Each structure stands twice: as C-alpha cells, then as structure tokens.
Amino acid sequence: MKLDENNPIPLHVQLTNILEKQILDGLYKEKIPSERELMDMYDVSRSTVREAVSTLVQEGILEKRHGRGTFVSNKPVQEWLKMSSFTEATKNLEIKLLECKKTPAPEHLKHIPDYENECYYIERLRLKDQIPVAIERHFYPITLGEQLINYDLTQTILYDTLESHLKIKFWESEQIVSCEPPSDDDAENLEISNQMYLLTTERMMYNPDGDLIEYYKGLFRPDMYSIHMKMTRKSNIY
C-alpha cells in the first residue's frame, strides 16, 4: 500500500491518520508492526515512520516499551479523544458554504486576545447524499480567517489546512456536548422540525502558547448522527 505523494498533506501525517484509524477500528490491539514492517507496508522512509509513530506516542495513543517495540496504549478515554473528532467524523460529507465574513465576536469571547472586537466567522452545512446532517460554525482571529478564505471552503478540511498549510499547532482543547432546540433558520437549513432537539458541540482550540485559535460550535441532527466512544480501563479503579 502506498501513500499519496501528490496529496498536499505530508506523508507522515497521512501515515499518522491511517495508523490511528486502524487502532481505533481495533486492527491493532496490542503491538503494532515494527518500523521496518511499516516502511515496507507503505513504501516510505524510516524518518516518515518515526515521525508518524512519535506523533501517536505524544498523543497517548501509542507507547514505546524498551526492547519490546511499540504498543497500543491503554490510557483513560479522555486521552484517546481527538480534539477534532467531530469534524473528522464529517470530513467525507459534502459541504455547502453558508456564510464567510467578519463579525463581532460572541460576547463570551470578547475578553480573549484577538477576539475583543471582531473575529472571522465561517458557517458551513454538511450533507450526506444531499441530506443536511450538520451546521458547523467556526470563529477565528481576523488574521487567521483572512488566510483561510484563500482556500476553497466547500472542499477544504479546515484542520488539515490550518496544520499542514498555515502551520498552526493545536495543543489543547475544551469541548462541551449538549443539546438545544434549533433556531428557525437552523431548522430550515437542516430540513427538520423546530421541535427536534439538536446534538451540539462547543469547542475551544488552543496552540502551545495558550492562544485561542478557534471557537467552534457544531449543530447535528440526532436522527443522522451519533457519538461512538470506545473506553478502556487502564487499571483497577475500585
């Protein structure tokens, strides 16, 4: 199996994503293939394999055991959840751009540097087989938003663009999952009754310096979307 060398996403990032999906799908439950085996499987260099594995070790998904190899980590579930999990789950869906503009920052962000006055707002509708599934709202600092609009926002995976092209490093996030009734506009865009409650996620994404890179809010149709979490207990908690 070869990685896509024509893809703008670096090879080590492609390999990281493949390995992580295989782990979360249960393909590897204990030890993963050796460096040499991964090099042969994906026709890549040793440095590409090492960078991909190192990323998963840093994220707590893998752990190295001296003299034995690299194993799937049995860490608590909160260390398994990817910061971009909800967007990753919708990355293969169609995208319709609803809004892209400068706007006053939400009130609860106005005390945060780069969000005191205006911010950049991107709103997109996600569809599966032409059926609306979710509305995603992204708020960015003005300078970052002005860079993002240079890309095709009906095709772009925002987190891939931020990391691979704009060299933004995501380090930490806070996420809240809840539910709420839709506004009339949201109900119309999602083609649902305004009596149907939506699954909602709110997320604050930070870089290593603690700067807020993105405030995100996703509105998901509960009849078209669900959350799947796989939890493993590391040790006896009783």
* Helix-strand pattern: HHHEEHEEEHHEHEE
What's the β-strand tally? 8
Looking at the overall shape, the CATH architecture of the largest domain is 3-Layer(aba) Sandwich
Strand order of the largest sheet: 3-4-5-8-7-6
Give the proportion of residues in helices. 25-40%
Structural class: alpha+beta
Q: Total domains, how many? A: 2
Radius of gyration: 19 Å
Structural shape: globular
The CATH class of the largest domain is identified as Alpha Beta
Q: Mean pLDDT, as a whole number?
A: 85
Structural account:
- This is GntR family transcriptional regulator.
- Keywords: DNA-binding, Transcription, Transcription regulation.
- It comes from Scopulibacillus darangshiensis.
- InterPro entries: Bact_HTH_transcr_reg, Chorismate_lyase_/UTRA_dom_sf, Tscrpt_reg_HTH_GntR, UTRA, WH-like_DNA-bd_sf, WH_DNA-bd_sf.
- GO terms for molecular function: DNA binding; DNA-binding transcription factor activity.
- The chain has 238 residues and is α+β, with helices and mostly antiparallel strands.
- It folds into two domains: 65 residues, Arc Repressor Mutant, subunit A; 136 residues, Chorismate lyase.
- It is 26% helix and 28% strand.
- It is built from seven helices and eight strands; from the N terminus they run αααββαβββααβαββ.
- The strands form two sheets. A six-stranded antiparallel beta sheet has the order 3-4-5-8-7-6, sandwiched between helices.
- α2 crosses α3.
- The longest helix has 14 residues.
- The C terminus is likely disordered.
